[in-house]
Amino acid sequence: MKRFSLICMLVLFVASITQAQKRYDQLKFPELNQFNQPDVEIFTLDNGIKFFLVEDRELPLIDVSVMVRTGGVLVPNEKTGLSSITGTVMRSGGSENYPSDSLNALLENKAASMETGIGFTSGGAGMNVLKEDFDELLPVFIDLLTNPAFPEDKIELAKTQTKSGISRRNDNAQQIGYRVFDQLIYGENSVYARNTEYETVNNISREDLVNFHKEHFVGQNMSIGLVGDFDSDAMKSKLQEAFASIPSGAGTELEFPEVDYEYTSTINFINKSDVNQSFVLLGHLGGMRDNPDYAELQVMNQVLSGGFSGRLFQVVRTDMGLAYSVFGQYGMNTFYPGTFYAGVMTKSATTAEAIDAIIGEIERLQNEPITQEELQDTKDQFLNSLVFRYDSFEKVLNQRMSYDYRGLSENAFDEYVEGVKATTIEDVQRVAREYLNPDQMEILVVGNKDEIGDQLQKYGEVNEIDISIPQPGSEQKVVEGDAEKGATLLDKMSEALVSPGTELNSITLEGEVVQFGEQLPGGQMSLQTTSTIDYPDAVEQTVQTPGGTMKITYADGQGKMSMGGQERPLPPQMNQNLKETLNRSYLAIAMAENDINPQYTGTEEFEDKTYAKLSVNVDDKDILFLVDEETGYPRLMRYQQFNPQQGEQVQIEERYSDWKTVDGVAYAYTQISFSGDQKASETTYKEHKVNQ
């Protein structure tokens, strides 16, 4: 009986759950509480600084935000990156009265924060402090804003970090896609699409940072907002006294060049061999924020690509199963036109099919009116999200300051809301027809050329784009010397390394590598390695790391790395480095002596001994060997290599000693590598095996 009762209870419970389950559009929610927007008190000092005050007594905190009329748009092409580095070093370098270490300690002790930064269209700074510390830290914040120290070491650190970012900018297919798409729309040399390069960073000096800051961080360019636990009248007096000494200066005019754009249909491709899917963007120039059709275009944009409910998601991803992700946006900027794009991440084999599906949905939006349900769902999603727009006083203040900075009315958002409410089915179709050009779009695909095949040819002549990163100083002069003596010297070195009659197909090496560097724990790290090189262009290496065994394989220009059961392809730059390492090794050069034009260029003293200088060119790079004319063994190899962190060519030197011969092949059992003046690694081999 008890069991029967329990079963009845379970049946009733399940039935109640079943009845309770409803579609999302059947759910009923209570009305949201009304959010009362706070009053914003605005006043301006004689020096031009405009203040926005919002009282918020909920927590004993005061938050200060500064907007400065400046930005990367003002920086000349040859110094691209200056504004960003200026904004970084303002904070990292501290001020004249509060050097970085002292400032960091002070803020940590007070549980406070101060930040600075400069973007493309504006600069900014912020401070968050406890109410009780505000009077003490406000002068510190003003000193940071107006008297940054710009120490050389922090400038060099910021430049190094910027260069490190440049070196990794081709690692991610999406980042590549967005960057190059902007160049297709705005123009490769446009201020709206230019890249920060090693050379432009190298062009930046401390004087540039000082002058850029001095010109723009003045009263006429500043807007300052405060929200927190304070009395507005008392705070107003404090701010007038604290900021009155900042010079008014000359107001900065932000000049945004016009975009010279012609609608056209192109197909563009970037080969990224280490991916198995395509990242696709297609679109054209977008619009401006002051367009009278702004609200209607945003509704259209939401219908087409508004997340899970958008047509692109529903059709391309859900119905057709063509996408890992699908997205889009009709961008409308304040200062210069945005971009319209639709994008997808899809399998390599379905690249063209996904492109066709997206174009089809854009055309359908123009040719068929949307349904009343789609329109209402879109409006509901937008209107229901408004609660998150003004859910804090900070958001209210930031929005008000942003509108003021961009020259929009304080009612701009309310007008936008009313425009969305008033948008009709006919409006959506009208703006789709007027502003979208599916037959004149730039199509960009980032993917694996071997896997995509000839799918893209249907769209026209494919423009393959080179995204290689310019390396300053990579041009090398042709080394001229005594070619006849160079050939004799190379022949002697080759016979010393690979005995006549010996056929070298592979070599296996076992040893220990000690790497040196400030970033390593204790300044160094020891690794056990086993490598097998199959000539001319394949290698397999196993490395015992502190985190486990790592295996690297490379052949035919492609490599992969596996560790902990995970495998991933090597990025193109690492593949290139492996190729060059294999080609310039002394054994590879010895076996390729008939294909190399060697030059004897004299002698050089090294460690109290005279060596012959042998110059060879491999992969368009000059490599110098110091060769012992008695034994034929190379004592060292020297060449130039680009260092991404330094953004310049550095001299690499490898020193060889302790030669041992096995089965007619000699190998240096001690190899020490230097990068510039710094010791980079020391390798000690235990044994080498030939053709095994």
UniProtKB/TrEMBL annotation:
Signal peptide start and end residues: 1-20
Keywords linked to the UniProt accession: Signal
Domain Peptidase M16 C-terminal residues, every copy: 203-381
Pfam assignment, any one: Peptidase_M16_C
Superkingdom of this protein's organism: Bacteria
Species this protein is from: Halalkalibaculum roseum
Protein name, as recorded: Insulinase family protein
Gene3D superfamilies, A to Z: Metalloenzyme, LuxS/M16 peptidase-like
TM helices/strands, residue ranges: none
A GO molecular-function descriptor: metal ion binding
The keyword Signal belongs to this UniProt entry's keyword annotation: yes
Signal listed as a keyword: yes
InterPro entries with a match to the protein in the record: Metalloenz_LuxS/M16 (IPR011249), MPP/UQCRC_Complex (IPR050361), Peptidase_M16_C (IPR007863)
